[in-house]
């Protein structure tokens, strides 16, 4: 579930912005749960303006929608691969194409995450960006 930067959230974030391998799609946009202050979020300490929060929330919402669509395609592709593996005779070319398709979908999810990070950083002031990067360095590498 998602939240906003005012601290209103409803459970673990699922946007794929966290460290790869955490949960189904990641550990929330800032790593950890939710997107608001206090739940592992580094955005809470940036003193965002109302306009910044609104713009960042819009980016988060757009990215969430894109990721859910991609996740649906990934699950469909995984089901196709399952069926290919369960076929009486395995078609290696079809399996190879299926894995390539899955890899391409994962790349699209990564690309949308990088784009969202750039767009969010563009909303911040230079001081806020510096503080955010400092917080990221302290909390470890993230691919959100």
From TrEMBL:
Keyword Secreted applies: no
UniProt cross-references to InterPro entries, sorted A to Z: Cpx_auxiliary_protein, LTXXQ
Principal location listed in the UniProt entry: periplasm
Pfam families tied to this protein: LTXXQ
GO cellular component, one term: outer membrane-bounded periplasmic space
A GO molecular-function descriptor: unfolded protein binding
Name of the featured protein: Spy/CpxP family protein refolding chaperone
Species this protein is from: Paraburkholderia sacchari
């Amino acid at each position: 579930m998602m939240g906003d930067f005012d601290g209103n959230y409803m459970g673990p974030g699922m946007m794929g912005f966290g460290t790869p391998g955490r949960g189904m799609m990641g550990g929330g946009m800032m790593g950890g749960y939710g997107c608001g202050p206090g739940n592992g979020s580094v955005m809470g300490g940036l003193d965002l303006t109302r306009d910044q929060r609104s713009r960042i929330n819009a980016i988060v919402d757009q990215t969430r929608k894109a990721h859910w669509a991609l996740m649906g395609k990934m699950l469909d592709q995984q089901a196709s691969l399952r069926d290919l593996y369960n076929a009486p005779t395995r078609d290696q070319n079809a399996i190879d194409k299926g894995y390539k398709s899955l890899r391409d979908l994962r790349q699209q999810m990564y690309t949308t995450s990088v784009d969202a990070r750039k767009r969010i950083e563009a909303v911040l002031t230079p001081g806020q960006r510096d503080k955010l990067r400092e917080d990221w360095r302290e909390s470890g590498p993230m691919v959100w």
